Protein: Putative membrane protein
Organism: Jannaschia helgolandensis
Amino acid sequence: MQDNATDDQDTETEWAEHRTDWAEDRTILANERTFAGWMRTGMASIAIAVGLKAVFGAAEPTWLPKSVSMIFIVAALLIFWSAWRNAGKAQNRLNAHNAECQPTRTFAILSTIFSIGAVIIGVVLWML
């Protein structure tokens, strides 16, 4: 009897470890989805900036619609860099088991590219 109890405990422990590993993999994938969601939110902020400039572009004084648009460009930059920082911190705390996770460098590269694009859009909006 004792031997069966030990085997059952070992099996239960093994399954509990598998469930924990799977939960960590799900968390890694959820972190990547959250990062993508924040990047979309940043892009939406840029779209609002472009839309505001298009709608209020003829307003006087001209610096006013440009300034309001720039608020959304700055918000997009903050969103991009916050997403990168938080996704990287979360990814570094977790260990992948079966999931193939993105390297934290990918988060940095994407955030940098999106930020450069936001700055360029901001410059173009200000020059219009």
Notes: Residues 6 and 122 are 66 Å apart (CA to CA). Residues 2-56 form the longest helix (55 residues). DSSP finds three helices and no strands in the chain.
